[in-house]
Write a structure and sequence with these properties.
The protein has six helices and ten strands. The protein has 224 residues and is α+β, with helices and mostly antiparallel strands. The strands form two sheets. An eight-stranded mixed beta sheet has the order 1-10-9-4-5-6-2-3, sandwiched between helices. The chain has a two-stranded antiparallel ribbon with strand order 7-8. It starts with a helix and ends with a helix.
């Protein structure tokens, strides 16, 4: 049985390696390797990959991210996905002690929403912490107010945060270096455009521009 599992695992690794190589060699002009890889995965499973939105990567059909969660907002109120059922969200997983990446991405989200003018009022920016040990509702209330007046900060128990992160396939881990007196959090850094149904519609890579995100938001809102 163990041999069979190893053989299947090896075949899967070889298959994914082959798809990645094909994506790298056969990507379209201006297309990133990751985009080409997702497109080929979609084709492999029999689903056509939608054309990426400007500045973002749409998910292959059959691959779902997002969904229900149970967390606490910056006012201390328990919230679920149902509290945002009539709105679209820009969601980022980060933490308030982040020295550089998180502030940059949250500032980008805020700028993108503001660029939409009145249309942007249909989108709520959300920070979900991956450091609930330090990110209390009070800490989040102070932090998110620095980026946008409508930004929502969400925290919860370690288990609640882990469940939300799994739904979005977010990686995070505590990092404690010998020279540091406090720990940091290593984490993936995507911005998620979430529809009123709670499902992710588009991913934005780190360092996406506010203009590109605003353009994708505008197309999304006009289509909902």
């Amino acid at each position: 049985m163990l041999i069979a599992i190893r053989v299947v695992a090896l075949m899967l690794i070889l298959l994914l390696g082959g798809i990645w190589t094909a994506a790298w060699l056969g990507r379209d002009p201006g297309e990133g390797v990751a985009d080409a890889f997702l497109r080929r995965i979609g084709s492999f499973v029999g689903a056509d990959m939608p054309a990426p939105a400007a500045g973002g990567v749409q998910l292959p059909q059959g691959l779902a991210l997002g969904g229900p969660f149970n967390l606490v907002d910056q006012t201390g109120r328990a919230v679920t996905q149902a509290d945002f059922a009539d709105r679209s969200l820009l969601v980022y997983f980060g933490f308030t002690y982040c020295p550089d990446v998180c502030p940059t991405e949250l500032g980008t989200m805020a700028t993108a929403i503001d660029e939409l003018g009145e249309l942007g009022e249909q989108v709520t920016p959300v920070l979900i912490t991956i450091d609930p040990e330090r990110d209390t509702p009070e800490a989040l209330a102070d932090y998110v107010s620095r980026f946008h007046p409508r930004m929502v900060g969400l925290t919860g128990t370690a288990e609640q945060v882990a469940a939300a992160a799994r739904a979005y396939r977010v990686f995070y881990a505590k990092v404690q270096r010998p020279e540091m007196t406090s720990y940091l959090m290593d984490h993936s850094s995507f911005i998620y455009l979430v529809g009123p149904d709670g499902r992710v519609r588009t991913l934005f890579r780190p360092e996406s521009t506010p203009e590109a995100i605003a353009q994708s938001l505008r197309a999304h809102l006009r289509g909902t």
